[in-house]
Write a structure and sequence with these properties.
Layout lengths: L1 H22 L4 H5 L1 H8 L17 E12 L5 E3 L3 E2 H9 L7 H18 L8 H21 L6 E10 L20 E4 L3 E2 L7
Antiparallel strand pairs: 1-2, 1-3, 1-4, 4-5, 4-6
Helix pairs in contact: 1-3, 4-5, 5-6
């Protein structure tokens, strides 16, 4: 019993130390052991200040998905686009206590995808590959839940529409920028795991 308590305390102390090194300002110890610290902290214990100082969205995003299924005769069937963002919006609207997953799961997965991939849809690190798989699995699970069709591949389309700045009280001034057009990004087709198919 005492050995278990000592092991639990040691594990807790190591965890606190590693998280501290990850959030502390850069120092010789955190630089020397950054690989080990990041391996422990990401993705389960990631720390950020968004809870206390949220970064409001400056764009509206519509994330849609479509599926592809190869029939036994070899023909390929591609479904229409399914709006995943609309499902999240409907789950949050008029709910005084909306689910965290409905509010943030898909949005945060896409934000993390952008941070790890940029404009390139090829993962260049294990973390980027993990985020890509996470985003793919969210989309596949939600499609399998709302559509009961079989599919082996999935593709995402993200339409980004910048939010226009509110007009000044005395009307738009001469320096007011014209609103930027919507940007549409198509991700590559991704194979989905057997358990994700409908």
């Amino acid at each position: 019993m005492q050995v278990a308590v000592v092991l639990c305390l040691a594990a807790a102390l190591v965890h606190v130390l590693l998280v501290f090194l990850q959030v502390a300002p850069p120092n010789p110890i955190s630089r020397q052991y950054s690989r080990q610290v990041n391996a422990w902290v990401f993705p389960l214990f990631e720390q950020n200040w968004r809870l206390f100082a949220p970064d409001p969205e400056s764009v509206n995003r519509q994330i849609s998905a479509r599926t592809m299924h190869t029939a036994p005769d070899g023909t390929t069937q591609v479904s229409g686009w399914f709006d995943l963002t609309a499902v999240d919006t409907a789950a949050v609207k008029h709910d005084p206590f909306p689910s965290h997953t409905a509010q943030n799961m898909l949005r945060r997965a896409w934000t993390s995808y952008l941070e790890t991939h940029g404009g390139d849809d090829h993962p260049h690190s294990p973390r980027a590959l993990m985020i890509q798989q996470y985003l793919r699995n969210i989309a596949a699970y939600r499609l399998a839940t709302h559509r009961h069709d079989k599919f082996e591949s999935i593709q995402l389309r993200v339409i980004t529409l910048p939010i226009a700045a509110p007009p000044a009280a005395d009307g738009p001034g001469p320096g007011t920028a014209a609103p930027r057009p919507a940007d549409t990004r198509y991700l590559p087709w991704w194979k989905v795991a057997r358990h994700a198919t409908g």
